[in-house]
Specification:
The complex is a heterodimer of chains A (289) and B (311).
Chain A lengths: L1 H29 L14 E2 L4 E12 L4 E13 L4 E9 L2 E4 L1 H9 L15 H7 L2 E21 L6 E16 L38 E14 L4 E14 L20 E16 L4 E2 L2
Antiparallel strand pairs in A: 1-11, 2-3, 2-10, 3-4, 3-5, 4-6, 6-7, 7-8, 8-9, 9-10
Chain B lengths: L1 H32 L10 H4 L40 H7 L15 E10 L5 E13 L4 E14 L1 H10 L5 E23 L3 E21 L9 E18 L2 E16 L12 H6 L2 E18 L10
Antiparallel strand pairs in B: 1-2, 1-8, 2-3, 3-4, 4-5, 5-6, 6-7, 7-8
Classes of the chains: A alpha+beta (289), B alpha+beta (311).
Chain lengths: 289, 311
């Protein structure tokens, strides 16, 4: 009888301890991170296959040599999936502004060419006419977005964001205001029998630079999207168009001669900042859980 | 005897109550947290028109996708907006904040950040910078700090081409060093998923400050003596931090140092006829924006931190 009572007591105590243990375990469970095992980004906008992005934008040149370019344009892209999209861009160099350096140089140049040899620099008009501007700029490209997420702005607004890299082939139409418009390609052999295309008079001021044509080269860039809504985002992008250029239109290879010819075109980087608003079609978007 | 039965009854009642309470709490907790299997509850306006998704396995870290359309404005059959019930599902979403538990706390910590930089808006002289900044965070979003940089000048092609193309030597200065007292504020904080797997926490800061610096003219005629300028330099900037460990972050930014600099006058006689001091007295002034982009590592002291709140 004594043994039975003791067993019952032990049973009751064990039951009570089991209850306490269950309570304690549950207390731990309550403190468990509710996001454990959840997606890295919840309710992400999915720009899945078949969605178009149309983005009116403005391009601004960065650290240009002689002429800043401001080019409004349009970008059209097709999203193959969430990570990769392809597209094309077209912009028009509506505004070309002299850089501070060019303004400073122009202010010191004579109004008319000096021919007595005392100043071998160009006149103001010669320098202005030969400084090339950008008429059209565009590209075909593919973009890749490995990063996406959300950002808290002032703790109140939570736009979705992504970061992408882009690359492709760029097309840039250069323009100058030299009258003849076409570079002199006549072969004029020098003493060594090598063609000197330009008039070999060692005066670059009467030559025509090869900056009245379309230049093609690689384009590389990176950017971000900030989504205002499911179908509209802010697009900030930096692009580098790499192509042969001669911004001043004068001789760059004085080792060979002073004349302006094809050798004076050199591969240069042309960095642009692009700010645009992207609109997505269809406008309804799937959202991840 | 009565006492013994009373104790026994009390023990049984206590055990039953605790077990029942634990069971009830367990069921409630499952509703509240959505469980560990990735099955997430949605409020009515989030689920209307959305077919139920399959429940993923518990160890599946990837996202679960709803294939149904998203309804922007919830509506009842009569067309009126649906009333938002404050049931358990709504409460469960409220319980999860957008960016839960910041991965990195900065309040009352020091940041030591050595960095390398480059000027990005000068088409004639490129400067490489090497420097460091020390920031003390008064709060998680507000800091005060000092920075110092040394500049190394590099002549760009345009600087050398201008004399041979336009027969004019450009006027330019090079920068030697600068230092500043800065205040920064962090308005943006977020996280990125890299390839939909790893999560990277980051923040964006804006800053303003005032400092001093020194520049030196590059004489157009090498025979002329150079002179140096002492500069008062306000600055504004912005940048990013990507948090790697509790004590380490990747730090990058752009600062615009705005100052009035003195340049060699265009009519300075050649051949060393004018001393540096005289040339400085006759120098032309111009407002300069020196924009520097830089990147570096941030080391944080103390090396670790503790959360004081659940979130």
């Amino acid at each position: 009888m004594m043994m039975t009572r003791t067993s019952k007591r032990i049973g009751v105590v064990v039951l009570a301890m089991a209850g306490l243990a269950a309570f304690a375990a549950e207390a731990r469970a309550e403190r468990k991170n509710p996001l454990a095992g959840q997606p890295a980004v919840r309710r992400r906008y999915l720009i899945n296959r078949g969605r178009f992005e149309i983005s009116p934008h403005m391009n601004f040149s960065i650290a240009a040599d002689l002429k800043h370019t401001i080019a409004p344009g349009l970008k059209v892209q097709y999203h193959l999936n969430d990570w990769v999209w392809i597209g094309g861009t077209a912009g028009f160099g509506a505004i070309n502004i002299n850089t501070g350096l060019f303004d400073e140089v122009l202010s010191t140049l004579p109004a008319t060419p000096v021919t007595d040899g005392s100043d071998r620099g160009p006149s103001r008009d010669q320098a202005e006419d030969r400084a090339r501007t950008i008429g059209f700029m565009g590209d075909v490209h593919a973009s890749f977005s490995p990063w996406f997420g959300k950002v808290a702005l002032l703790g109140r607004w939570y736009p979705a964001v992504d970061l992408f890299f882009t690359g492709g082939v760029g097309f840039v139409q250069l323009k100058n205001k030299v009258d003849s418009g076409t570079p002199d390609t006549t072969c004029r052999p020098n003493s060594a029998g090598v063609c000197q295309n330009a008039a070999a008079d060692s005066d670059p001021r009467n030559d025509v630079p090869d900056t009245n044509s379309m230049k093609i080269g690689p384009m590389l860039g990176a950017g971000m999207h900030f989504w205002f809504s499911k179908s509209v985002s802010l697009n900030i992008e930096f692009r580098d168009y790499i192509f042969k250029d001669n911004p001043s239109g004068f001789n760059t290879t004085i080792e060979e001669n002073l004349d302006v010819n094809a050798d004076d075109m050199q591969i240069e980087n042309h960095v642009f900042a692009m700010f645009g608003v992207s609109i997505y079609f269809p406008m309804k978007v799937k959202i991840s859980r | 005897m009565k006492s013994r039965y009373g104790l026994k009854f009390l023990s049984v009642a206590l055990a039953t109550a605790i077990a029942a309470s634990a069971g009830a709490r367990s069921a409630f907790a499952q509703d509240d947290a959505g469980g560990d299997d990735g099955d997430v509850t949605f409020s009515p306006d989030e689920t209307e028109g959305t077919p139920p998704a399959d429940t993923p396995p518990a160890d599946d870290p990837g996202p679960v996708i709803d294939d149904g359309p998203v309804i922007d404005e919830p509506a009842t059959p009569s067309g009126a907006p649906a009333k938002k019930s404050l049931g358990s599902t709504r409460e469960s979403w409220k319980d999860i904040i957008v960016i839960p538990q910041k991965k990195f706390l900065k309040r009352k910590r020091f940041e030591l950040s050595p960095h390398l930089g480059i000027t990005i808006n000068d088409n004639m002289i490129r400067h490489f910078t090497q420097g460091a900044e020390i920031n003390y965070f008064l709060t998680d979003a507000l800091s005060i700090g000092v920075e110092g940089n040394f500049f190394i000048a590099q002549e760009l092609e345009r600087y050398n081409l201008t004399p041979q193309q336009h027969w004019r030597v450009p006027t330019a200065n090079k920068y030697i060093w600068n230092a500043a007292l800065n205040f920064s504020y962090i308005p943006f904080y977020g996280k990125f998923a890299l390839f939909n797997r790893a999560t990277v926490h980051w923040e964006s800061w804006v800053a303003a400050g005032v400092g001093v610096g020194q520049s030196e003219v590059l004489p157009r005629d090498p025979a002329n003596e150079a002179f140096k300028n002492f500069l008062i330099q306000p600055n504004v900037g912005g940048g990013l931090r990507f948090f790697i460990f509790d004590w380490l972050a990747l730090h990058m930014g752009v600062r615009d140092y705005i100052f009035l600099d003195k340049f060699e006058a265009t009519n300075r006689p050649p051949g060393g006829q004018q001393s540096g001091d005289t040339a400085k007295e006759k120098a032309d002034s111009a407002l300069i924006n020196n924009v520097v982009a830089y990147a570096g590592l941030s080391f944080w002291f103390p090396l670790s931190f503790k959360y004081s709140t659940l979130r």
